Amino acid sequence: MNHTLGLRVERRTAVLVVVMVALMLCLALLGLCYGASWASPGKVFAVLTGAERSVVISDWRLPRVLAGLVFGAALGVAGALFQNLTRNPMGSPDVIGLDAGAYTGALIAITVLSGTSAQLATGSVLGGLLVAAAIYLLAFERGFSGLRLVVIGIAVNAMVTAVNSWIVLRAELEVAIAAVGWSAGSLNGVGWGDLGIPFAIIALLLILMTTRAHAMHQASLGDAVAATTGVALNRLRLLMVLVGVGCTATVTAVAGPIAFIALAAPQIGRRLAGAAGVPLLPAALTGAVLLQGADLLAQMLLAPVALPVGVVSTAIGGCYLIWLLTKEVRRA
Amino acid sequence: MSARLTAREITLRYGERVVSTRLSLDVPDGAFTAIVGPNACGKSTLLRALVRLLRPESGHVELDGREVGGYASKALAKQLGFLPQDPLAPDDIKVRQLVSRGRFPHQSLLALWSAQDEEAVAEAMASAGVADLGDRPVQELSGGQRQRVWMAMVLAQRTPYLLLDEPTSFLDITHQYQLLGLLARLRDEGRTVIAVLHDINQACRYADHLVAMRDGRVVAEGVPKDVVDAALIKDVFELPSVIVPDPVTGTPMVVPTLQGE
Ligand SMILES: Nc1ncnc2c1ncn2[C@@H]1O[C@H](COP(=O)(O)OP(=O)(O)OP(=O)(O)O)[C@@H](O)[C@H]1O
Ligand SMILES: [Mg+2]
């Protein structure tokens, strides 16, 4: 055990970080090379260093790759936050209806308002927060129970998803087609113009949460021990909800509700790191790798048709879920 | 007898279920206080109120004349260490990691892990007899080992107060006496120990101050020799008994007269 920056870093976590970052770079490079026409890595480096010009690489592929990595990390962290809050591996924002709520907000922004990116972002965040508040009120009964919150969240998710379908059905045809294409969660057509503000928000939220990560881990000792060792639980929980909803909604505003990354990444990361609780860093790295990997697959599977990345992430998530459930059943 | 930690006329309830009404208690400084009483009489509830996990509906819990509710979380955690009756460790945590979590109130964003933390953790693990378990996952330990690991976590917190809810319940007889001996030593070093104990004879042997509870009330309190008699045991536990002097320490020893019932 070595002490970097006063932090205890387990060797296995350090190895994981190195491996994951390498994997991220490889997938990113692949994402820059791959497309309607293959660009050699040499050409990609030349474009990145400014020696050559290529609109396709620098303005189409690069923003998409960065979105895959950053959004993946944001979803991974959001999942880890909610899994910590609910102390339940099923308690991720996509399962308990926060993605769906954010999507409702975004849909309303497009169908009722004019659908500018600021309206989309605001609508998503408000939708996510409203759903979070609703679940919390419904689940809060003399104290905080993670399991109750998850079960109620699943019901809320179903209801909000139905509302979303209804909004799409009622919408004008061209809006509806756009909304459906986006409803699975997709990075198709993401450009620089879509990313500035979302990246800034995500960076801010992640930095904010990093300063409280220590307290979050302390909270995994249970309410009693967390409180008596000095964690201000209510404040911490509020921050976790805000950051989790903020990350989820920001991603949803740009790319739609991308399912299952938030569910699977924190648990895969935790197992790979062999860490206690559900740590944020492995969740972020695994999320980035998963989403970027899924987006590459989505582009390749039926090329030249690009699938929405949500279709692939749902398939990955489904496999993960089956594995998780069989494992839990065996344990029970 | 001075008392920095006091409960004044506190009423404690969970929703509709009232546990204690207008309970008062002075926790004597630098002494070993044992709380005894039958199941469900409100011992854990009282402890939870003292460490501010449960807010009294009325009345005050005060430390140094200040309401505990008014302390900053970490400031209070530097004073009061608490071991719950059934703490639950997160998945896959190792013993040393769990004990290290006791240092949380002494750490901050800029001072995450210090040599002092290192030393406190090592000392706590040695005191609780878990020094050789450091790299084992907590979930794979025996019940008694696990309880000693949690004890080590609270010791690593290095608080002047130790409030312990049944710290010996999973321990074999030798480890029970080792732990009680450790608590007595800590008391001798000037710390204040408050422990819920089920073994009344151990409580009489080690405690300077005995608090007997029943139905959410403090029925008797004081030096064990002065308060423990057959009438009290009958009253608190509904157990007929004779009290004899402990052959080793001379403190009261409760010998039940019930047989095969
Ligand atoms: N979280 C809770 N919600 C509702 N009622 C509770 C809760 N915790 C305890 N109680 C009730 O409060 C009463 C006192 O419980 P408490 O845990 O303080 O008893 P105790 O004296 O510690 O008992 P034991 O010796 O079994 O640990 C009991 O009737 C119990 O059922
Ligand atoms: Mg109890």
Notable traits:
heterodimer; A: 332 residues; mainly alpha; ABC transporter involved in vitamin B12 uptake, BtuC; two-stranded antiparallel sheet; 76% helix; 2% strand; disordered N terminus; B: 261 residues; alpha/beta; six-stranded mixed sheet; four-stranded antiparallel sheet; 27% strand; binds adenosine-5'-triphosphate
Give the strand content of chain B.
25-35%
Specify which chain pair forms the largest interface.
A-B, 28 and 39 residues
Note poorly predicted spans of chain A: 1-7
Helicity range of chain B: 25-40%
The tally of helices of chain A reads: 13
How do the strands and helices of this protein lay out in sequence?
The complex is a heterodimer of chains A (332) and B (261).
Chain A lengths: L1 E3 L2 E3 L1 H23 L7 H8 L6 H32 L11 H14 L5 H23 L6 H25 L2 H11 L8 H28 L3 H6 L4 H23 L5 H13 L6 H22 L7 H23 L1
Antiparallel strand pairs in A: 1-2
Helix pairs in contact in A: 1-3, 1-12, 3-8, 3-10, 3-11, 3-12, 4-5, 4-6, 4-10, 5-6, 5-10, 8-10, 11-12, 12-13
Chain B lengths: L4 E10 L2 E11 L4 E5 L6 H8 L7 E6 L2 E2 L5 H5 L2 E4 L11 H6 L14 H13 L15 H14 L4 E5 L7 H16 L3 E5 L3 H7 L2 E6 L2 E6 L1 H4 L2 H8 L3 E5 L6 E5 L5
Parallel strand pairs in B: 3-8, 3-9, 6-7, 7-8
Antiparallel strand pairs in B: 1-2, 1-4, 4-5, 9-10, 11-12
The complex binds adenosine-5'-triphosphate (ATP) and magnesium ion (MG).
Q: In a nutshell, what does this entry contain?
A:
Chain A is an all-alpha fold and 332 residues long. Chain A has helices at 11-33, 41-48, 55-86, 98-111, 117-139, 146-170, 173-183, 192-219, 223-228, 233-255, 261-273, 280-301, 309-331; strands spanning 2-4, 7-9. In chain B, the strands form 3 sheets. In chain B, strands 6-7-8-3-9-10 form a 6-stranded mixed β-sheet, sandwiched between helices. A 4-stranded antiparallel β-sheet of chain B has the order 2-1-4-5, with helices on one face.
